[in-house]
UniProtKB/TrEMBL annotation:
The keyword Secreted does not apply. It comes from Nonomuraea monospora. It holds the Pfam family Glyco_hydro_1. Its EC number is 3.2.1.21. Keywords: Carbohydrate metabolism, Cellulose degradation, Glycosidase, Hydrolase, Polysaccharide degradation. PANTHER family: GLYCOSYL HYDROLASE, LP05116P. InterPro entries: GH, GH_1_N_CS, Glyco_hydro_1, Glyco_hydro_1_beta-glucosidase. The keyword Hydrolase applies. This is Beta-glucosidase. Belongs to the glycosyl hydrolase 1 family. SUPFAM superfamilies: (Trans)glycosidases (SSF51445).
């Protein structure tokens, strides 16, 4: 069965950050520090999904999706990151899973979507190797409760983005600015993934995946220097997180670090545990030029000549086809089936006088990207699912509530949900689909 779904993340929608025993996450700390987020906005309330989840499940049922990708908040289950389990937190996800199944919607939980328990950050966060084993322990706790009803699990969401924005550039929580010194955070996330795969399977999980943010990388010109720079960026963004998982080895990282002393014997074997699917999040290609100064071995030249989203991201649907066929060409038989675990766009969705939201640009975006995915499938790429980001307008990390990605508009003052034109379009689209697509 092809999975047609939508997706969210815990810190972006749940709210209730101080309720029912939940511990603090790095995003609670980061968002409350002055100057970290747009307008000082936080996820304290977000979409209040923790209290309004029945309404949100009903919206999904009305949409007609057969799968829902959500994330579980590590600090809601284990407030200190390890030790005592917080029963009310685990109970919340238990109720959500049962409600989804009652509507014929397959739950697809992600165990880590950037909300590391603050207690573990104070130990070093993803720079601390011990956190890897604690993540596997957390995976075992959650799967011990839910694996009897949840067939497909995702360990991590976008470890590249978490490393680059959270540890290298300081744009996301935990706000560190280590630049290439952030590479151990990449390795430790991947090692945690591998250990979690073992823990999930031991707890009865039938299928396990990892979600990577991937981008086609275009050199700014055919000049050798630009081509080399593009290759260096491809290594950092794509291959650093795909090669160890699929091939059991790191690409050449000499442009970024003189050695990989943080990699120990046996780590790569653990990281390369067989997967049932690779989650791919796609938003846009990246255009890279040779560096003009000291620092990283590339410059982001920007993709021009295409329409853009409200975020300023270029809209390039065929980039998805290029990405998928490129993964197949690079990894061949080592590539498991692919799930498009995020694809969507932010738009300036202003309600009309009658309360409707005519987000025609989002309809066009989704229609063209689904067509590009199908072209890749026609070229032999094994794609098993497509999830729209996102179900709801939500807390968009450092951008606060300024960027709206949802199929459903949220008035953050009243928490009123209003399905947009894209919601109704996707509902009609899904009604027409053969589930064996």
């Amino acid at each position: 069965m092809f999975l047609w779904g939508t997706a969210t993340a815990a810190y972006q929608i749940e709210g209730a950050t101080g309720e029912d025993g939940r511990g603090a996450s790095v995003w609670d700390t980061f968002s409350h520090e002055p100057g970290r987020t747009r307008g000082g906005q936080t996820g304290d309330v977000a979409c209040d999904h923790y209290h309004r989840w029945p309404e949100d499940v009903a919206l999904m049922a009305g949409l007609g999706v057969n799968a829902y990708r959500f994330s579980i908040a590590w600090p809601r289950v284990l407030p200190q990151g390890s030790g005592q389990v917080n029963a009310p937190g685990l109970d919340f996800y238990d109720r959500l899973v049962d409600a989804l199944l009652a509507e014929g919607i397959q739950p697809v939980p992600t165990l880590f979507h950037w909300d590391l328990p603050q207690a573990l950050e104070e130990r070093g966060g993803w720079l601390d190797r011990d956190v890897c084993a604690l993540f596997a322990d957390y995976a075992a706790v959650v799967a011990g409760r839910l694996a009897d009803r949840v067939p497909l699990w995702i360990t991590l969401n976008e470890p590249f983005v978490h490393m680059a924005y959270g540890y290298a550039m300081g744009l996301h929580a935990p706000g560190r600015t280590l630049m290439t010194g952030a590479l151990p955070a990449a390795h430790h996330q991947l090692l945690a993934h591998g250990l979690a795969v073992q823990a999930l399977r031991a707890a009865g999980a039938r299928q396990v995946a990892l979600t990577n943010n991937c981008t086609p990388v275009w050199p700014a010109s055919r000049e050798e220097a630009d081509v080399r720079a593009a290759d260096a960026y491809d290594v950092l963004h794509n291959r650093l997180f795909n090669d160890p998982v699929l091939l059991g080895e790191y690409p050449d990282l000499s442009a970024y670090t003189p050695d990989l002393g943080f990699v120990r014997d046996g780590d790569l074997k653990t990281i390369a545990a067989p997967l049932d699917a690779l989650g791919v999040n796609y938003y846009n290609p990246t255009r890279i030029a040779a560096p003009t100064g000291d620092g990283l071995p590339f410059d982001d030249a920007g993709v021009t000549g295409f329409p853009t989203t409200a975020f300023g991201w270029p809209v390039v649907p065929d980039g998805l086809r290029e990405l998928l066929t490129g993964l197949k060409a690079r990894y061949g038989a080592a590539l498991p089936p692919i799930m498009i675990t995020e694809n969507g766009c932010s738009q300036e969705d202003t309600p009309a006088a009658d309360g409707t939201i005519d987000d025609a640009a989002r309809v066009d975006f989704l229609d063209r990207h689904i067509a590009a995915m199908r072209r890749a499938m026609a070229e032999g790429v094994d794609v098993r699912g497509y999830f729209v980001w996102s179900l709801l307008d939500n807390f968009e990390w450092a951008e606060g509530y300024d960027q709206r990605f949802g199929l459903v508009h949220v008035d953050f003052e009243t928490q009123r949900r209003t399905p947009k034109r894209s919601y109704h379009w996707f509902a009609r689209f899904l009604k027409d689909q053969n589930t064996d697509t």
